[in-house]
Design a protein that fits this description.
The chain has five helices and five strands. The chain has 200 residues and is an alpha+beta fold. A hairpin with a 4-residue loop joins strand 3 and strand 4.
């Protein structure tokens, strides 16, 4: 893959492909962490070597965070998933958390979900605007509620009760994403554009 084709994605996901506990006596530790940020490349003309380097550094930071979570005595695959995704949510480079795109009306509304295959549990939050790390809220829904998904204000109140980090909505504002919204709004108003409004 050359420098100009590095895929940087718009939806956040992380997959833990396989884990074997590092302290398992019967086998050496074999851990595979695979991360990606969704779907859709950065336009070739915008992917400079400097920008590619920043993305790679953040992705490596996410992988290291996930791996370090597994190294703890009680570390689990869920810890690895949450830790790695939090790094991406805290970075303005990805369309998640700090780097989330704006809705049509100029808000950052965040979603996250998490699953645990062994017990077939899942948790999710959607349309939250004040939760610093939606992935942590999704995990709390899975582990500490009777629900699978909470939305909007209800999700935010639940997360607050769980003492998760809350921020002012302005925390999620980034110039890059704001300018992308302005471009989209201008394009929408151009004569002959019949696609209609986009976003929430």
């Amino acid at each position: 893959m050359n420098t100009l084709e590095l895929p940087i994605f718009s939806l956040l996901a992380l997959f833990l492909a396989a884990t074997v506990r590092a302290d398992a006596p019967e086998a050496p530790a074999k851990v595979v962490l695979a991360i990606h940020g969704g779907a859709g490349p950065v336009p070739k003309q915008k992917m400079t070597p400097e920008l590619e380097k920043k993305y790679r550094e953040e992705l490596e930071k996410a992988l290291r965070a996930g791996y370090q979570s597994l190294q703890r005595e009680d570390g689990s695959s869920l810890d690895a998933v949450e830790s790695a995704i939090k790094v991406m949510e805290d970075s303005p480079l990805f369309n998640a958390g700090k780097g989330a795109v704006f809705t049509h009306d100029g808000r950052n509304e965040l979603d996250a979900s998490i699953m645990e295959g062994k017990s077939k549990r899942a948790g999710a939050v959607a349309a939250v605007t004040i939760l610093k790390n939606p992935i942590s809220a999704a995990r709390a829904v899975m582990e500490k509620s009777k629900h699978v998904m909470l939305v909007g204000r209800g999700a935010e109140l639940f997360a607050t009760e769980q003492r998760l980090d809350v921020v002012d909505p302005s925390y999620f504002w980034t110039r890059e994403r704001w300018l992308q919204l302005q471009d989209a709004l201008r394009e929408e108003k151009e004569p002959g554009d019949r696609r209609g409004p986009r976003g929430g």
